[in-house]
């Protein structure tokens, strides 16, 4: 695997230890068409530099390849997957999952189980338009929560089949949650950028059977 990117500590996130700020009353819900919604809370995690340092370490990042027509190409990001039994690499991530469980229990009716991580090394890394429709996500409403660490990147959403896109900028310590029919009726992507951006790690919490 290629060398991991180096993180320049930010000048504005000076908390000594990572701290999760309050969720209720601060998350803003955006209702999209067809029963989809997105909750957004910039700066949910304070002291995120500590978490990013750990995530940019040797936590088992994997460089994947996939078939594209007649060629095999590198997936433009590094990946790490934690099943429900595996300990997460920073305790604040376990606390984040517990807090999300408590907050979304009524709406979701089941706990978050797996944790997927993507490392975008620079602006050339990306994820193409898709919905999390492997497994139950293809037929059932669900909730996917993403906590972002590192350089801000855009998360775009657009209706399946096309239409205007909506942009969320995901910065250091920000939380975005896609819910309702979002994975079935909307697609999302993180496009490449020509801006000089540093690394970003996306931490995604999903219920069992959603990918
Ligand atoms: O980078 C992100 O926050 C989105 C990741 C994503 O959509 C995925 O891995 O399915």
What does this structure look like?
- It is a single chain.
- With 211 residues, the chain is mainly beta.
- It has one domain: Jelly Rolls.
- 14% of the residues lie in helices and 40% in strands.
- The protein has three helices and 14 strands.
- The strands form three sheets. The chain has an eight-stranded antiparallel β-sheet.
- The radius of gyration is 16 Å and the shape is globular.
- The chain binds 2-oxoglutaric acid (AKG).
- The site of 2-oxoglutaric acid (AKG) has 10 residues, from strand 7, strand 13 and strand 14.
- 2-oxoglutaric acid is lined by residues 116, 118, 127, 132, 146, 155, 188, 190, 202, 204.
- InterPro entries: AlkB-like, AlkB-like_sf, ALKBH3, Oxoglu/Fe-dep_dioxygenase_dom.
- Keywords: Dioxygenase, Oxidoreductase.
- Residues 111-209 form the Fe2OG dioxygenase domain.
- This is DNA-N1-methyladenine dioxygenase.
Mean pLDDT: 94
Proportion of beta-strand residues = 35-45%
Which quaternary structure do these chains form?
A: single chain
Q: What spatial form do the alpha-carbon principal axes imply?
A: globular
Please bin the fraction of helical residues: 10-25%
Strand order of the largest sheet: 2-3-12-9-14-7-6-5
- Helices, by number, come to 3
How would a crystallographer describe the biggest sheet? Answer: 8 strands, antiparallel
The tally of strands reads: 14
Structural class: mainly beta
Number of domains: 1
Order of helices and strands: EEEEHEEHEEEEEEHEE
CATH superfamily: Alpha-ketoglutarate-dependent dioxygenase AlkB-like
The span between the termini is: 24 Å
CATH class: Mainly Beta
> What is the CA-based Rg, rounded?
16 Å
Name the CATH architecture: Sandwich
Protein name: DNA-N1-methyladenine dioxygenase
GO molecular function: dioxygenase activity
Domain Fe2OG dioxygenase: 111-209
Keywords: Dioxygenase, Oxidoreductase
């Amino acid at each position: 695997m290629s060398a991991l990117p180096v993180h320049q500590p930010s000048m504005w996130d000076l908390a000594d230890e990572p701290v999760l700020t309050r969720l209720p009353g601060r998350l803003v819900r955006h209702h999209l068409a067809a029963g989809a919604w997105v909750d957004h809370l910039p700066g949910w995690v304070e002291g995120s530099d500590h978490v990013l340092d750990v995530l940019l370490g040797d936590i088992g990042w994997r460089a994947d390849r996939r078939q594209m027509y007649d060629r095999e190409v590198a997936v433009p990001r590094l990946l790490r997957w934690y099943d429900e039994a595996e300990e997460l690499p920073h305790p604040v991530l376990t606390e984040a999952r517990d807090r999300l469980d408590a907050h979304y229990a009524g709406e979701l009716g089941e706990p978050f189980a797996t944790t997927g991580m993507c490392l975008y090394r620079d602006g050339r890394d990306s994820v193409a338009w898709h919905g999390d429709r492997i497994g139950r996500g293809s037929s059932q409403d669900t909730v996917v929560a993403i906590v972002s660490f590192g350089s801000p990147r855009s998360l775009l959403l657009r209706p399946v089949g096309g239409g205007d896109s909506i942009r969320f900028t995901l910065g250091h310590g920000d939380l975005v949650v896609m819910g309702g029919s979002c994975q079935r009726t909307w697609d999302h992507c993180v496009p490449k950028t020509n801006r000089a951006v540093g690394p970003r790690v996306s931490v995604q919490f999903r219920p069992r059977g959603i990918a």
